[in-house]
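Posted in: Structural Biology > Protein-Ligand Complexes

Title: Requesting predicted complex, 4'-deoxy-4'-aminopyridoxal-5'-phosphate in pocket

I'd be grateful if someone could produce the C-alpha cells for the following input. Sequence and ligand are given below.
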Amino acid sequence: MFDVQSVRAAFPILAREVHGQPLVYFDNAATSQKPQRVLDAIAHYYTEINANVHRGVHTLSGEATDAYEGARARIGQWFGVTDPGEIILLRGATEGLNLVAQVLASQLTAGDEVLVGETEHHANIVPWQQLAATKGVIVTKIPVDADGMLSLTAAKALVRQGKTKVIAIGHVSNAIGAVNDMPGFIQLAHDIGAYSVVDGAQAAPHLRVNVPALGADFYAVSAHKMCGPTGIGVLFGRRELLETLPPWQGGGDMIDRVSFSGTTYNVLPWKFEAGTPNIADAIGFAAALDYLESIDFDGAMEHEAQIHAALIEAMRARPQIQILGHPSHWVSVCSFNVVGAHPTDVGTLLDQLGFAIRTGHHCAMPTMEHFGLSGTARASLAFYNTHDEVDRFMDALDRVIRMLA
Ligand code: PMP
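-- Reply #1 --
Done. Output follows.
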C-alpha cells in the first residue's frame, strides 16, 4: 500500500525550509529528489568498494565491476531488457540521444529526412540539426495539436517511404506533460523502414515502460528524474542495430585490440562505453529503482495522478490562469501563465513563499513558439507530493495573483 507520509520521510531534503517556509518542491520534471537509500548506496560505494572496473585483478576492482554490471542488469530489468548488450550506460538522456544521432549518421545521406516532434526537448532536436549541418539531412517537425499531443495523423501524411529514415519522438513532453502515442509512432517508423528513436526522459518517472514491448529501436532515459543521481542514464538499443553501427567515442574499455596497424572494438555494450564509466551513480540508479519498487510504484503513480488531477482542476477554476495544453493522457506537469504577469515574476514570488517551480521555455523553445508564448510557469509533481501541498500551492498562487494584479 502506498503511504505518502512514510515515503516523504525517506527524502531528507523534503524536510528543509526555504525562506523560512517549509519547502514545497514542484520542480520534479527538472529533477526529482533522492531518497536516503540512493544517498547511502553512493556513499557505500565510495566508502567500501571504490576501484576502477573491468581491468583490475584485485578484490576491490572485482567488487566494483560486479556492482557496476549488477546495476546494469537491475536497470535493464526495470525496463524489461534482459540482454546486457542492449543496455548502454551514459551520462543521461541528452548523451543517449546525441550518441544515436551521431552513430546513425553513418546510415544517412544528404536529402534523407528525420521527423522530429515539435514539442521535443532541445536534446531531441539539436543533435538532428547538427546532422543536417554535417550530412545534409532534412529535419522536419511533426506538428503538435491544440491539446499538446504530437499528431500521428500529420506524421502519417509527412512520411516518405525511402526518404524518411528516422522518427524521433518524446514519449512525454516536458513542457506540457502530454503522453504521446508511442505505439502509433513506432509502428509508423517500422512500416516505412525508418529508425524509431524515443526520448523517454519524462516518461520513465511516471509510467511503467517496457522497452521491448514498445518496440522502439532506441529509448533514452535519465536517472535523475526518477529519484536517481545526476550524470547517469541509459540508452536502450536493439542488439542487431548496435552490432552493425560504428562505435561512438574512442578510448579505453570500448576496444578489443589497439595497434597502429588497426584497432578492433569491444563487444556490446562496452563498445559504446568509452572511458571510466560513472560507476557510483550507476549503482545509485539501481538503488533508486529498488526504492521505487519497494514503495509500490503503481500505487505511487495512482497517488501522483490524483494530485495532478486535483491541481489541474483547481487551476482551471481560476479565470486568471491559462494552462498550456489539455492532453487526453497527461502526467505530472501543469504549465501555466497568470494572465498579464511574467512567468519569472510568478516563480520568484512563489519561491519567497517556499514553492519551487520552474519558469521559462523549459528547453522546448519550438513548443513555446507554436503556442505564441515566451515561456510559462511549470509546476511538476512527483509521488511524494501531497494533496495538502497542492492546496497550499493554490493558496500561494492566489496571493501571487493578487500581488501581481
Ligand atoms: N528530454 C526531456 C524530455 C527532458 O525533460 C530532459 C531533461 N530536462 C532531457 C531530455 C535531458 O535530460 P538530461 O538533462 O538528463 O540529459
